[in-house]
């Protein structure tokens, strides 16, 4: 409990620094702006957690309400004599995680179910874990899913969270700008290495004056997916620090060299998850964007002028044989130890996130690539998407997504991400006070001091 209390104090301090596009507000695939207010679904029911068939849920993504409502309806169809009701509250991402840590530490006030962003999930797996093991429902379906996405929320032999999506990282190409520079979709298809991507970007910038892409300077893309693609990460699988590994330094040096050409700029607002950036991108601010597949919902919700112009392609690689995509971001849906009807909560989560139909619903309602591989060939998922160059996401990406690697989620994961977001990216790309090697070594030393 002392460890949990220390984490609560650290989170409270972090909240004073976090903003809408801050270090960990919106990096897991959820729409969770810092100005979002709480609200309740099925608000006519005011029963407290665990009373009757009312299930209380906290989430930082209002779109997830549709996922839980689907699960509720599926459950109620099977149990018409004892239907469940949902009480859903939506909070900004960091605020919700802090509030949940405090509730669990105090022993009162936690919901039955909580959506916990991957950026914070490791905080809940320290010390006396106050989440419920979900092995019984996970083991029913994990054979149909992408194993690495379930492992994100696993500690020892227990699964404490259910994944929401794969989060396969892709390159979004604005074909209107690409074609303005004299390139075609065939040229885009031929980009297989990061050096080829860079060369296209340099030519495009010279011809149009438009940057090829952006780097987040108060967040961690595309650095994080690029190092995971190399087999690296901030931490090793045993939780030890890998921040200053040779492969990580190589990636950041490549990014800095590209940055220095002028063909790359800082994401307006510092992050790809803020309104300032969405407006800029909607107006044709850059020619491509390296982000996970869950960013499709950002395009369709916030950038209407790009409809039909955005083509999706796999990540380039540094070396042949490396994966063409990696899973980044995520939300682990957990049941808290304060839930008074655990079996009912498990049934709701099973119907919301694990069944075949639930995964189809996640694609249709949230535009997230579902973790069940057997739905990827469903006609509802393979249909062309008018917004995205009238192409099918899974016909393009399906062969790359299965088995794609995901980041390590360990005790120092939150601290590692905060250092990258708040120090490494800024010091390398904004004020230039550190070289890539210096920035990563300094961050690594700070992490090792916490071990």
What this model shows, in words?
The protein is α/β, with parallel strands linked by helices and 451 residues long. 42% of the residues lie in helices and 11% in strands. It contains 19 helices and eleven strands. The protein has helices at 2-15, 64-78, 93-106, 118-121, 135-141, 147-151, 175-180, 185-189, 194-208, 223-229, 246-260, 275-282, 296-302, 342-354, 356-366, 379-382, 393-401, 413-429, 436-448, and strands at 54-59, 85-90, 113-117, 154-155, 158-159, 169-174, 213-215, 264-266, 288-292, 310-314, 331-335. The strands form four sheets. It has a four-stranded mixed sheet with strand order 2-1-3-11. A three-stranded antiparallel sheet has the order 9-6-10. Strand 1 (54-59), helix 2 and strand 2 (85-90) form a beta-alpha-beta unit. Helix 2 (64-78) packs antiparallel against helix 15 and helix 18 (413-429) packs antiparallel against helix 19. The two termini are 18 Å apart. 52% of the residues are buried. The model is unreliable at 1-51 (pLDDT under 50).
List the helices and strands and how they pair.
Layout: H1 2-15, E1 54-59, H2 64-78, E2 85-90, H3 93-106, E3 113-117, H4 118-121, H5 135-141, H6 147-151, E4 154-155, E5 158-159, E6 169-174, H7 175-180, H8 185-189, H9 194-208, E7 213-215, H10 223-229, H11 246-260, E8 264-266, H12 275-282, E9 288-292, H13 296-302, E10 310-314, E11 331-335, H14 342-354, H15 356-366, H16 379-382, H17 393-401, H18 413-429, H19 436-448
Parallel strand pairs: 1-2, 1-3, 7-8
Antiparallel strand pairs: 3-11, 4-5, 6-9, 6-10
Helix pairs in contact: 1-3, 2-14, 2-15, 14-15, 18-19
């Amino acid at each position: 409990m002392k460890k949990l209390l220390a984490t609560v104090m650290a989170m409270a301090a972090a909240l004073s620094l976090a903003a809408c596009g801050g270090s960990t507000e919106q990096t897991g695939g959820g729409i969770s702006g810092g100005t979002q207010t709480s609200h309740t679904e099925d608000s006519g029911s005011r029963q407290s957690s665990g009373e009757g068939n009312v299930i209380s849920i906290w989430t930082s993504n209002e779109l997830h309400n549709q996922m839980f409502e689907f699960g509720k309806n599926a459950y109620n169809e099977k149990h018409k004599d004892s239907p469940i009701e949902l009480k859903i509250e939506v909070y900004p991402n960091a605020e919700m995680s802090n509030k949940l840590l405090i509730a669990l530490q105090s022993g009162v006030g936690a919901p039955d179910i909580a959506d916990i962003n991957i950026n914070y999930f490791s905080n809940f797996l320290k010390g006396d874990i106050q989440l419920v093991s979900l092995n019984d429902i996970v083991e029913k379906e994990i054979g149909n899913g992408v194993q690495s996405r379930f492992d994100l929320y696993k500690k020892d032999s227990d699964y404490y969270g259910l994944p929401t999506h794969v989060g396969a990282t892709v390159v979004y190409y604005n074909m209107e700008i690409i074609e303005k520079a004299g390139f075609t979709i065939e040229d885009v298809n031929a980009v297989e290495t990061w050096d080829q991507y860079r060369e296209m970007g340099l030519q495009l910038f010279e011809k149009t004056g438009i940057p090829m892409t952006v780097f987040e300077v108060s967040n961690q893309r595309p650095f994080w997916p690029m190092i995971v693609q190399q087999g690296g990460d901030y931490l090793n699988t045993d939780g030890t620090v890998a921040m200053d590994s040779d492969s990580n330094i190589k990636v950041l040096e490549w990014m800095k060299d590209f940055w220095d050409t002028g063909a790359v700029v800082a994401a307006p607002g510092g992050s790809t998850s803020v309104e300032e950036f969405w407006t800029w991108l909607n107006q044709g601010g850059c020619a491509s964007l390296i982000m996970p597949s869950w960013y499709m919902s950002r395009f369709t919700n916030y950038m209407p002028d790009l409809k039909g112009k955005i083509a999706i392609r796999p990540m380039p690689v540094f070396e042949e044989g490396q994966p063409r995509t990696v899973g980044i971001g995520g939300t682990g849906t957990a049941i808290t130890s304060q839930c008074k009807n655990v079996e009912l909560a498990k049934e709701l989560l099973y119907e919301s996130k694990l069944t075949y139909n639930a995964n189809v619903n996640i694609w249709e309602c949230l535009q997230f690539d579902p973790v069940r591989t057997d739905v990827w060939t469903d006609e509802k998922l393979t249909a062309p998407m008018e917004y995205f160059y009238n192409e099918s996401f899974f016909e393009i990406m399906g062969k790359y997504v299965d088995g794609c690697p995901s980041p390590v989620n360990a005790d120092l994961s939150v601290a590692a991400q905060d250092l990258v977001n708040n120090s490494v990216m800024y010091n390398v790309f904004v004020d230039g006070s550190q070289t890539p090697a210096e920035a990563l070594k300094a961050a690594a030393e700070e992490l090792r001091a916490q071990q």
